[in-house]
Design brief:
Number of strands: 23
Helix content: 40-55%
Shape: globular
Structural class: alpha+beta
Strand content: 15-25%
Largest sheet: 12 strands, mixed
């Protein structure tokens, strides 16, 4: 049975690609059977001529036998399909302008959606590469109630991980990991790159075999300090080592550790990425046991202070998510009790307000998903709207094309072509157009994917669109749906024509009745483009408001330099001297106008210290953000001093303690009076008094929108002189000086230590990301939608002018002037645009409540935005109808009347 099916399949394939050979074989077979029949008759005594006649009669018509054989083999269907494809190809080749317009329009719509699908798929749906059982693998989130709101954190301590691993029975694998920027390499070649520190069990979640060497195991991931081994990422191995197998056994400096390379991960293996793909993997116990920047690293596996890891769990087979979550929460409560016993005197625990949640591995799908995910979702909807506009535009083009061909179609029907065959040919033509549009869409999607990657996935090195199987499958489905949907438009139009009437009628008859569908499609395009441009305008307005926020420092002209000693031993005075040398070297670089020390970095890290205001309430403490700086800090940062003074060289160790406070702190603690000369204390009431000598403008420290503004500054000489980094102020673009400054300062670093040089905008840009990406993508798709709508409007108006040539000629003959005809044509375009503006505006008002949470100080009903978009649409309508209107005003009445 199977052999027969395979033989039949081989014959069908052969018949498709070796048609002439199969036809010859069929003729030879028929000839053989006829000759055998003739021989039988001849042997019976019948003359050969009569025997040949009887043989042919017994077989019937040879052509009928061939047709029956082709039908049985499915060849007739192939014949019909081949003929339809050739007919469609000839027809499209004869109309290159029409073909190119349809293919490009569909390509833009399909490509935009292909690229957006790839981004959404990567963020929300596609599990990490090589993950063996995505459905049963979970990232753990810890939640608690605070101020009546649910707070969430996906960070966990190593000790908590050990507690949960011991106390749960619903999971068969548990692992922790943390991806951090660490110095890889030495000297001038040292670069901050993402490195994943993970437990050995982390690799058990993945079906990933190393390309060469091996992965590290439990023996190398031991407490308190793991083995100094590293597994390289495949891409890093290729780029830095040229893919040489001899890399195994060599050493690579990662952070403070000189690690031995023991293996190379397979291509595309990135673990569980939340940003840039890691270049290497090291044991988590090595990272934690040698992290010299932590005061408590020796206790990282026994206390609960260091919250630096993320936890992955794999559910056992047959265990539901509900029961596994209950088991996890119970273990979490037990761990909280152990922590409370370790730290007596803390606030009493309310277990009902603390619980653990099993989430997907994709951080963007979990409870901590940021506003960027909502923007991606909205932009995906926008891309779908662009696709609908493209389909409406193509539908309009096909309708116009069908109207031009209606007499041809009527003649073919009158000559006996069946409507089924006609529908088949028309549908084949549109499917061929859609297929070409799908191919163009993949090409356009690959280009758009590069742009979208830089906006939504800046950590990715590439974003494959044209070669991704899931994206290609989506494009194939969308292309098929689009081909059938838009193919129905001319088919329905052709089916409504009365055969006799169409044959007798001229080209003008029935034009206006049949153009209603095209008018509806045109209004739909205008409506959707208005909707998109209003969204773009709202996001652009929000972005402008965000960029106008006064941060309290000049982001574009600042660079932050941090020191990384990599285990180098230096006492306090030596470190202070080294920082002074870095500042001197930085000031000597051309283009640098100032440099200053600081302990914390706004939008990156902060330091909170409880303060007591003796004049208010000595028993009340309040946490306030703290910064320690050198005297020229305010000039370097561009932070204005509003009252009093900043720091000077007089404010040194041993001198009276002084502070500069923020304007918000001044108004909060000393409302209605000058804070200069006032006193406050740190931590406890027994600490010495700190005198306020100045008030600085408020700055943004942790985010752009919700800041208390409570902030104060201390002279770094009265704080810890050996801590902190250096802020450098540039005359021009900060990015242009980064590499020059890094090389100049690196020469001052001893041994394997290094400096990290980062433009200040790198810390601020992520805070603006959701508004930036929303504005860019809404604006890009809105402009694209407007272009498509303008092309659709132009095609409709131009076609109407062509169809009304006789009418326009009559009007001119009766005395109508060119201005009158121009107003007539432009007025028609304006009516289409006005209808779209009204409907689109109403839809935008209705959708405003959903988009409002993504806006900043911008009303979703912003009158200015609505007015600008509507005026823009009307101007586009005027521009799109200008050329057809000009043609209408120049119609020769003699030619038009003779054509009628």
């Amino acid at each position: 049975m199977v052999s027969e099916i395979l033989a039949d399949l081989r014959f069908r394939v052969r018949a498709l690609f070796q048609r002439d050979a199969v036809e010859r074989e069929l003729n030879d077979e028929l000839r053989f059977h006829i000759e055998r029949e003739v021989e039988k008759h001849v042997e019976a005594g019948i003359p050969r001529g009569e025997a040949e006649r009887r043989a042919r009669l017994s077989f019937g018509g040879l052509d009928r036998i061939k047709d029956d054989s082709r039908d049985a083999r499915g060849l007739s269907l192939i014949d019909v399909l081949t003929q339809d494809l050739r007919y469609a190809a000839r027809g499209l080749k004869a109309k290159p302008g029409f073909t190119v317009a349809v293919v490009l329009t569909l390509g833009l719509g399909i490509g935009a959606n292909a690229a957006m699908f790839r981004v959404v798929d990567r963020l929300l749906f596609r599990p990490p590469p090589y993950l063996a059982d995505a459905a049963a693998t979970h990232r753990v989130y810890l939640q608690w109630m605070q101020d009546g709101k649910t707070r969430t954190d996906h960070g966990i301590q190593y000790t908590r991980y050990l507690d949960i691993e011991r106390a749960t029975s619903s999971f068969d694998v548990a692992a922790v990991f943390a991806t951090r920027s660490m110095a890889v390499g030495t000297g001038q070649d040292a670069r901050e790159l993402p490195v994943t520190a993970n437990s050995a069990s982390f690799f058990d979640f993945f079906a990933a075999r190393p390309v060469i060497g091996r992965l590290f195991g439990v023996a190398e991931d031991r407490r308190p300090v793991g083995a100094a081994v590293v597994v390289l990422g495949y891409e890093y191995w290729q780029s830095q080592y040229g893919g040489r197998p001899g890399v195994i056994g060599t050493r690579l400096q990662i952070g403070d550790n000189l690690c031995t390379i023991i293996g190379v991960a397979p291509p595309g293996f990135v673990g569980v990425p939340d940003g840039r793909a890691p270049v290497a993997f090291i044991p988590v116990t090595l990272f934690a046991g040698t992290a010299t920047h932590q005061d408590h690293v020796s206790d990282y596996y026994t206390d609960y202070h260091w919250n630096f890891l993320e936890l992955l769990l794999h559910r056992k087979a047959g265990i539901s998510i509900g029961s596994a979550s209950a088991d996890l929460t119970q273990a979490y409560h037990q761990s909280l009790r152990l922590e409370a016993a370790q730290n007596p005197g803390g606030e009493p625990l309310v277990m009902a307000q603390n619980f653990a949640v099993l989430g997907p591995t994709q951080l963007e799908r979990g409870p901590e998903a940021g506003p960027e995910v909502k923007v991606v979702t909205w932009v995906s909807g926008v891309a779908l709207i662009v696709f609908l506009i493209a389909c409406a535009n193509v539908g309009n083009l096909l309708l116009a094309h069908a109207f031009r061909r209606r007499r041809e179609i009527a003649v073919r029907l009158a000559l006996g072509v069946s409507r089924a065959r006609l529908v088949s040919q028309l549908l084949t033509e549109t499917l061929m157009l859609a297929g070409a549009g799908g191919v163009a869409g993949l090409a356009f999607g690959q280009l758009a994917g590069s742009v979208l990657r830089s906006i939504f996935l800046p950590g990715e090195t590439t974003l494959r669109v044209a070669s991704d199987p899931r994206t290609m499958a989506l494009v194939a489905i969308v292309t098929l749906i689009a081909g059938v949907a838009i193919g129905l438009v001319p088919i329905i139009a052709a089916g409504r024509d009365d055969l006799a009437t169409t044959l007798k009628a001229g080209a003008r008859e029935g034009t206006y009745q049949r153009s209603r569908a095209r008018s509806a499609l045109l209004i739909l395009q205008s409506t959707l483009s208005v909707l998109l441009l209003i969204g773009a305008g709202l996001f652009v307005r929000s972005l402008h408001n965000v960029r106008s926020i006064r941060l309290g420092y000049d982001v574009d002209h600042l660079i932050y330099v941090s020191r990384h000693l990599r285990g180098a031993r230096m006492d306090g005075p030596a470190q202070a001297a080294q920082v002074d040398e870095l500042i001197a070297r930085a000031r000597a670089v051309p283009g640098v106008t100032g440099a200053s020390r600081a302990v914390t970095v706004p939008m990156s890290n902060s330091w909170s210290m409880p303060v007591i205001i003796p004049s208010l309430d000595t028993s009340r403490r309040r946490g306030v953000q703290l910064q320690a700086t050198s005297p020229d800090f305010f000039a370097t940062m561009g932070t204005r001093i509003l009252q009093g003074r900043g720091f000077t060289t007089v404010d040194r160790q041993g001198a009276p303690l002084v502070a500069v406070i923020s304007e918000a702190m001044s108004k909060t603690f000393w409302p209605g009076k000058s804070p200069i000369g006032q006193c406050f204390k740190q931590r406890v009431d027994t600490m010495p008094c700190i005198t306020v000598v100045g008030v600085a403008e408020n700055i943004k420290v942790r985010n752009l929108t919700n800041e208390s503004g409570l902030y104060y500054y201390l002279p770094i000489a009265q704080f810890h002189e050996d801590e902190g980094g250096v802020f450098v102020r540039t005359r021009g673009d900060a990015d242009a000086l980064v590499e020059t400054l890094r090389r100049q300062l690196q020469d001052a670093m001893p041994g394997a230590s290094y400096v990290r040089v980062v433009p200040m905008h790198r810390f601020v840009d992520p805070q603006r990301q959701s508004w930036e990406s929303g504005a860019k993508m809404f604006l890009a798709f809105g402009v694209l939608a407007h272009i498509l709508a303008a092309l659709g409007l132009y095609s409709v108006i131009a076609y109407n002018v062509a169809q009304r040539t006789h009418e326009l000629g009559v009007r001119i003959a009766l005395g109508a002037g060119g201005r009158h005809l121009t107003r007539l044509v432009v007025g028609q375009a304006m009516r289409f645009a006005a209808a779209g503006a009204v409907i689109g505006g109403m839809l935008a008002l209705a959708a405003g409540r959903w988009i409002a949470p993504l806006l900043y100080e911008t009303s979703p009903k912003d009158v200015t935005v609505f007015a600008v978009v509507i005026v823009t649409l009307l101007l586009v309508a005027i521009g799109a109808s200008a050329i057809p209107a000009l043609r209408a005003s120049r119609v020769d009445p003699n030619v038009a009347l003779r054509a009628g």
